[in-house]
Amino acid sequence: MRQWNWKIGFASLTVLGLVFLSAQRVGAAESTEPVPQDWSFDGPFGKFDRAALQRGYQVYKEVCSACHSMNLLSFRNLGGGAGFAAGDEESSGPGFSAEQIKALAASFTVKDGPNDQGEFFDRPGRASDRFVAPFANEQAARSANNGALPPDLSVIVKAREGGADYIYGLLTGYKTPPADVILGAGMNYNIAFAGQQIAMAQPLNDNGVTFADGTKASVEQQAHDVVQFLTWAAEPNLETRHRMGISVLIYLAVFTGLLYALKRRIWKRVR
Questions:
Q1: Alpha carbon distance 1, 31 (integer Å)
Q2: Closest by alpha carbon to 174, among 145, 210, 206?
Q3: pTM for the complete prediction?
Q4: Which helix or strand (DSSP H or E) is residue 112 part of?
Q5: Bond from prior residue into 203 cis (ω within 30 degrees of 0)
Q6: What sign has the CA pseudo-torsion 82, 226, 62, 55?
């Protein structure tokens, strides 16, 4: 049996260590894990920020809706907000007034019909209408986006774990590609996207919108607000669920206390 050559063994371990560290560095460079953000709706007491929801809808309308639909939402869902009674189906909405919702809906053209002559016609949108999609069908959407199909955003936050953080990271992750990175045709460099190359061009730019409340429209602010809006769209009953959860916990705590007191009273007699 050959004796162990400590020099060869030491060299082998050194090489393996360097390979391991290099693999770690490569893995870290390619990591697309989103950085956790501080969201008002997180935690058992979390609530939506109504001002952020309204700004987020504005970002969606003026930027995102050019390519992305939200087919599960109606204009009337934009009502609700603080001050509505618990249990109201729209109590978690962004808080637009009825007049504002009517005006927002009327700013879109909706195809309706058929009329008495059997023809379809265009009319201003109504509060009961669904959000107007940017394209008539999937084929038209792909044709306008180099073959890529922009996903519907109604429940996009639920598409993956940590969806809010991921979408925020994606919207703020557009960077100038390093010199050694060769982008494919029509691709854009994004550090938050798997592979760092994404077909969607950077949608948000500083001062790309003008918020009615005077909030500075940085890329980060726009991303934060539209993610808040998309989270509400995906889970409009979040606040109701949080309230119910807290009520159940309080009930269980009181009930447990009563049972404990009853147990002590009964066993006191047994003794």
A1: 46
A2: 206
A3: 0.79
A4: strand 109-112
A5: no
A6: positive
Same domain, yes or no, for 46 and 155?
Answer: yes
The rounded distance, in Å, linking the Cα atoms of 237 and 265 is: 42
Looking at the structure, tell me whether residues 176 and 215 fall in a common domain: yes
- CA distances in angstroms from 134 to 62, 75, 231, listed in the order given: 12, 15, 21
Spatial contact of 243 and 92, defined as CB atoms under 8 Å apart: no
Domain count, the chain: 2
Range list of β-strands (E), 158-229: 188-189, 197-198
The closest alpha carbon to 209, from 54, 58, 78, 50, belongs to 58
Residue 229 · residue 94 · CB < 8 Å: yes
User: Tell me, what CATH number does 141's domain have?
Assistant: 1.10.760.10
Per-residue model confidence as pLDDT tens digits over 79-123: 976 444 334 444 578 999 999 999 999 999 999 988 888 888 999
Range of 134's domain? Answer: 34-73+130-236
Q: Are residues 171 and 156 in the same domain?
A: yes
pLDDT digits (tens, 9 = 90+) for 192-213: 999 999 999 999 999 999 999 9
Residue 214 lies in a domain: yes
Q: State the pairing for strand pair 188-189/109-112.
A: unpaired
